[in-house]
Amino acid sequence: MARSIAGRSVVAALIVSTLVVAAAAVGAGPARAAPSDQRVRIEGKSTTLFEGTIRTDGHAIRASSDTEARKCDGTNNGAHATPGPTPTAASEDAMRSIGQDFDGQWYPGFDDYFIQRFGPDAEDAGTAAYWGILVNGIYTSVGGCQYGLNPGDQTLWVYDAFNNRDLLRLDGPQGVGEPTSDVEGAPPTAAAKSSFTVGLGQPFGVTTIRNESTGDIGAAGYRKPAAGVRVSPVTTAANGVQTIQSTDPATVVSDAAGHATLSWSTPGWKRVKAEGTGFVRSNRLDVCVTDAAGAGCGATPSADTATRVPPPSTVPSPAPTPTGSGALTVGAAAPSGKGFRVGGLTVQGLRVTTDGNPAALVGVRWTVLGGAAMKGWRIEYRVPGVAQPRWRTAKSGTVQSSALLDVPFGRTVDLRARFVAPTGGAVLRPIGRVVVPIDERVRQVRFSGRIAREDDPLAWRKTVTRMGRGTSLRVTLPAGRPALVVRSDRRKAVVEVRSGRARPQRLTVPAHADGRTVVLRARDRRRGSAVRVRVLSGVVRADGLAVGP
Fold this sequence. Notes:
Layout: E1 2-5, E2 8-11, E3 36-43, E4 48-56, H1 87-97, E5 102-107, E6 112-118, E7 121-122, E8 132-135, E9 138-139, E10 154-158, E11 166-171, E12 195-199, E13 204-212, E14 222-225, E15 230-236, E16 242-244, E17 252-253, E18 259-262, E19 268-275, E20 279-280, E21 284-290, E22 340-342, E23 345-353, E24 362-369, E25 376-382, E26 392-397, E27 402-405, E28 411-420, E29 426-436, E30 438-439, E31 446-448, E32 451-455, E33 463-467, E34 472-477, E35 481-487, E36 493-499, E37 505-509, E38 517-521, E39 529-537, E40 540-548
Parallel strand pairs: 3-10, 11-20, 12-21
Antiparallel strand pairs: 1-2, 3-4, 5-6, 6-7, 8-9, 8-10, 11-13, 13-14, 13-18, 15-16, 15-17, 15-19, 19-21, 22-23, 23-24, 24-27, 25-26, 25-28, 28-29, 30-40, 31-34, 32-33, 33-40, 34-39, 35-38, 35-40, 36-37, 36-39
């Protein structure tokens, strides 16, 4: 679900696949082991609610106002085949470790939460102050229960994320203050370092960096020095909640190059963060100021530097829901495990997904490896079986690594993708053949007999029509092979297809316990005509109809 605020198209609280804008990767890389230690920072309205490392894994969660448990393990909406840690589950663990909770609204069609509150800080619709999520400094293009975290990733939740406030990062003398990537799903570009040592009265130099958004979800933005930003001491409560002391005499202000210098007259651990009007406050740096004899400070304060292990969750595992693939491919090019090269970059996992199903769009995803973004990409389609089929552009972009395509309904289309590397090298790659059905609920489709509408988050437009024995549907389709799209059931079913004067044809719907999408294709027809489908045995969960070659 996207919201446009102050002219920027953003994913509000980023809990859902972006079905209004073309959007991107969900945590690239290998399968995630569990549990793992994940870095989490939650910047609230006036304080930092959590900043540290949490031992976590993807698991069931439940918002305070929700009555049901919800899975949140990266397999939501078919984003990943295997479960693992996610930003929302890790943040729920983080809040639970300090005795706080979260609230949000669950969207079944997207299989994810719209986050509305962390701890005491609830969204304010009147000022458009909503929660937003970033991983490695980039606003994610999918929801916090879909994004798969990898080792070394940094999750950041921000209150009032979409009112044109640039993000701040505070760097010490070496490294970067927290993990930062240039491409969504890519590993951080440099090692993060947040703990330092300096002598009593000696200068300690820091650099403030602002991340000015491009307005594109999944884009790294423009990182440059932040001038006129305050770098101030931080006080930390027993549970780790941090408050910036902006009026403290030790506060310094960054210059035009983003540089500032601090020094301390007393030994011990010092903690600093950067903040400024119109900015999201930065990460924290911990500085050990040694005494005159050079003695150290001992271990860093354990409240928010030691890895936290949250108390056991009392949320039960949710009831299983249909998990089978909802992709409508009928002849996809199988993604290569090694991918293919485009200039100095590698593209992996080019495939059709279910991302667009709720909005009747065709989703496509891929992953770019190599630490940079493509110079450009374009996805094209054509309708096979028609006179002189032509390739047409469905979507194009640059930094994104997925797209939602608006292509002709009721047809089968071929898809291909063209990638252009920063060096200028280009590769044209087939994606596959995809059925783009008309929804079974449109007026053109007429049912006879007893039917029932059912919700299914992976179905085309999120619903199916349940048809029992003797029930039939009728629709007029153009020339070609009729294709009936169904969501499978635990038991097989048999249907009869009639078209014009041709003899009837029986087709079997195979049984699949996971409810996956199945495309049944009847005989070719040279002319358009009415097509009638009748259920002879079993139950059919109709999802749409189309024609193909």
